[in-house]
Write a structure and sequence with these properties.
- This protein has about 800 residues and is an alpha/beta fold.
- Helices cover about 55% and strands about 10% of the residues.
- Helix 11 crosses helix 14, helix 26 (about 585-595) packs parallel to helix 28 and helix 31 packs antiparallel against helix 32 (about 700-710).
- About 50% of the residues are buried.
């Protein structure tokens, strides 16, 4: 790629255009004073300062105003506009209007060879602003559609309609105002349009003879009556659509939006379901790379049936205007793909086709379908997007088959060792069969990095190295592959904690993957690790707009609330997950852990008691173990832990030793100290076996610290707790960094170091973080009162004060 091409690489930005109304009529010195006044107002807004501090804002002077180009959330320019508007209320002599649009921009060099910004995103923002008068905050329909996904902004949005602006361009404009914000009066340009339309209507009406008008009305009435009888059998569906259309969310749904539902597997071999899933995902992925479309991620659509009956309701839930249904039939090397594009509002078929191909030609089907859909939705494609849609990732059918099998495992909800290992296995096979399969390398890196960070894969040095090598290989093969850029960023975040570099890659990936929820999701993880909670919330909301029914994403959002001890908000988010996956054992266990943290053991018992987790899922069992220990009635959990450990799942790795630690604790609480000591010795040997390959696994180190504490080895236990704090300092990770401090508090309490225990507890109780025990719920004052590990501190007045006082948030 040439330097010129690089400089024109597009990215989506959110542009706020501001100018002074009637500026040219001011005297020269008045112009200078007005501009200085406006500059000071803009510079003092919190939105401007925060965006500049995070490197997410470029300000361009425009003579009579400025363009503020934000690269963060779509809410940033709106927040900035509101703050400017509020400041201007104190200075009514400065007439200002504003326009906001989200669209493509690119970096260019100006005549002085300084970096500048240009592109349609800025041009349209100016056209939108030009439609307004003093006091107006106007936004494009695209921005309004995005804002309407948030309950906060819906009351502000008032549609003005379409208007033709400079060079014959037609823009859809929405007026943003509330009681003391913006200008509720329609702009003069729109008043003029209404007046002209009214006059034209009167002229037409006067020109129609009365008898023709009556005849036309009678014809319309007859058609309506006939329609009533013809469609009576569908009255219930029609009423449902009408109700959906009347809702604020439906009204805000962009026309160029689509969800691709799971493709039905019509193959005689039901094991080919992964292939149908893969074809669906590849079509969706190609569509999602078109910036002019809103495409819902597959993680949100996979919970629906292949051909559901309630399409309008599904479209409303997903926030789209169109649905793509399909089926795949594979027999040997022959493949048949059927697809139909449906307009959800009236359940009408827009386009359908059948494709018969050989397996070696399957990519042409995915390309043709994606191109046809883009044409039907009238989406504008750049030259680069046309190339992406037509891309053929490999010429090796076996490699592609292995890739699709691995992909299917990555899309399963939950992040447990069994699915992570299966995905890793097939993706390794895919790149072995075709070492030039960049998509395979990118997805393998993502699976490795995610497994390393969450310990769904054993976080060894070898795993970290494979994640790096896979990402680098993908980028070397295809430097402009969005999935490869994203994988590199995720490796830097998850494995190296190099947050600045990770963010740089995530922002670069956004231009290639404009509809990817993983980008704002990943940015949410980074800002969460930095303790930037407001930005984290904004990024999670952005990700959920693109992926509203992704249970893993919703769960992570809930975990942020849990870290903040905002338990009511967390429970509401977890209930969203259960509405999608009612049998999700991990989510019920998480809700039970919240009840424990709130000191409501009966409520926790009601949720945790009936749970039966899979052999490869340890989280629910640990939550049940903690419940039994908090109740000090461990009789029932001991045999269940023994049964689980009698046939340990090798995929769990060091977590089997962690479960043995829980068993020893339960035995000790039950009074069987000899059995407990034997269990802990087994646990210590098992855990130490993993430490050499996982020297930076702070969870493993913490488990060993607690095990040695229980065994009475004070010096080793304290040394391990301090080692965990060195491996993961709070300065590097605000969320997990306090985890080792909680371990230190527990170890210090159990080894007679009351002062150190109290000091550590004071820190963690005043900090949002991911807790050290079951479900990672942070310590609360209620848990201090219940947890047997702190029994040695019960008579200490300092501890009593901590347990009785609410922790600062």
């Amino acid at each position: 790629m040439s330097d010129a091409q690089k400089s024109l690489r597009l990215e989506i930005a959110h542009v706020l255009f501001v100018d002074i109304v009637g500026y040219s009529k001011f005297l020269i010195d008045e112009q200078a004073e007005a501009l200085q006044e406006l500059n000071e107002i803009v510079r003092k807004t919190d939105a401007t300062q925060e965006a500049e501090a995070s490197g997410q804002l470029i300000i361009l002077p425009t003579g009579d105003g400025m363009a503020l180009v934000f690269t963060g959330s779509v809410e940033c320019p709106v927040e900035c506009a509101l703050q400017i508007n509020q400041a201007l209320r104190a200075q009514p002599s400065l007439p200002v209007r504003m326009g906001i649009h989200s669209g493509p921009v690119h970096h260019v060099a100006d005549v002085n060879q300084r970096e500048n910004i240009a592109g349609a995103g800025i041009n349209i923002a100016q056209r939108v602003m030009d439609c307004g008068d003093a006091g107006h905050i106007l936004v494009s329909k695209r921005v309004a559609d995005d804002l309407a996904q948030y309950r906060r902004w819906q009351p502000y949005l008032h549609d003005l309609g379409d208007i033709e602006v400079k060079h014959g361009v037609v823009v859809s404009v929405v007026n943003l105002y509330a009681d003391v914000i913006g200008n509720p009066e329609p702009p003069e340009q729109f008043k003029n349009i209404a007046q002209r339309a009214s006059a034209a209507g009167a002229t037409v009406a006067r020109g129609i003879p009365w008898h023709e008008l009556v005849l036309a009305l009678l014809l319309i009435a007859a058609l309506i009556i006939g329609g009533v009888f013809f469609f009576r059998h569908r009255a219930q569906q029609t009423m449902a659509r009408a109700n959906a259309a009347a809702s604020p969310v439906a009204a805000a749904i962009p026309e160029k939006s689509i969800a691709v539902l799971p493709f039905e597997n019509l193959s005689s071999e039901k094991a080919n379901a992964y292939f149908a899933d893969g074809i669906q995902d590849e079509i969706l992925t190609r569509l999602s790379k078109i910036a002019d479309l809103k495409v819902i991620s597959r993680t949100s659509t996979q919970h629906y049936k292949s051909a559901p009956e309630n399409l309008p309701e599904i479209a409303r839930q997903l926030g789209v205007a169109h649905i793509l249904e399909g089926s795949v039939q594979k027999s040997g090397d022959a493949v048949r793909v059927n697809v139909q594009l449906i307009k959800a509002a009236n359940d009408s078929h827009i386009w359908a086709d059948t494709f018969d191909r050989k397996l070696t030609d399957i990519f042409s089907v995915e390309s043709e379908i994606s191109k046809a859909i883009a044409e039907q939705l009238r989406a504008k494609l750049t030259g680069e997007e046309k190339q992406v849609i037509a891309a053929k990732p490999t010429n090796n059918p076996e490699a592609y088959d292995a890739y699709l099998r691995g992909l299917a495992y990555t899309l399963e909800p939950g992040n447990i060792p069994a699915t992570a290992l299966a995905a890793q296995k097939y993706l390794r096979e895919a790149v072995r069969l075709d070492p030039k399969l960049a998509l395979g390398w990118a997805l393998l890196s993502y699976v490795d990095s995610r497994g390393y960070r969450t310990t769904s894969l054993q976080p060894t040095v070898a795993l970290r190295d494979e994640a790096r090598q896979a990402a680098d290989t993908a980028l070397t093969l295809e430097p402009d592959l969005g999935e490869a850029v994203l994988a590199k960023g995720f490796y830097l975040y998850a494995c190296l904690k190099d947050y600045d570099a990770a963010v740089s890659y995530f922002k670069q990936a956004r231009q290639f993957l404009p509809n990817s929820s993983r980008i704002p999701e990943s940015l949410a993880y980074v800002t969460r690790r930095r303790g930037q909670w407001d930005q984290t919330e904004s990024y999670f909301n952005e990700a959920e707009r693109l992926d509203p029914r992704n249970v893993d994403l919703l769960t992570q959002h809930a975990l942020s609330y849990i870290a903040l001890r905002a338990f009511p908000q967390a429970l509401r988010k977890l209930d969203q997950v259960l509405n999608i996956t009612p049998d999700n054992v991990d989510i019920v266990a998480l809700k039970g852990s919240i009840a424990q943290a709130e000191g409501d053991l009966p409520r926790a018992a009601a949720m945790l008691g009936p749970l039966r987790a899979n052999a490869n899922d340890a989280n629910p069992v640990e939550a049940q173990s903690y419940q039994a220990i908090l109740e000090r009635r461990p009789g029932e959990i001991i045999p269940r832990l023994k049964e689980r450990l009698g046939k340990p799942d090798p995929a769990l790795g060091y977590i089997n030793g962690e479960l043995r630690l829980w068993l020893g604790w339960a035995q000790a609480v039950a009074g069987d100290h000899a059995a407990a000591e034997e269990t802990w010795r087994e646990a210590r040997g098992e855990l130490e076996g993993f430490l050499k390959e996982q020297p930076e696994n702070f969870v493993l180190i913490g488990d060993l610290a607690l095990t040695n504490m229980f065994l009475g080895d004070k010096s080793t236990a304290l040394a391990l707790a301090e080692r965990a704090m060195t491996v993961l300092p709070v300065e590097k990770d605000v969320v997990s960094g306090p985890y080792p401090i909680e371990i230190l508090a527990r170890v210090a309490a159990g080894t007679g170091e009351a002062d150190r225990a109290i000091a550590a507890l004071q820190k963690v109780l005043a900090t949002p973080y991911s807790g050290a025990l079951a479900s990672n719920v942070p310590l609360t004052r209620a848990l201090l009162r219940l947890d047997p590990m702190f029994d040695s501190l019960r008579n200490d007045p300092r501890f009593q004060k901590l347990a009785a006082s609410p922790a600062r948030k």
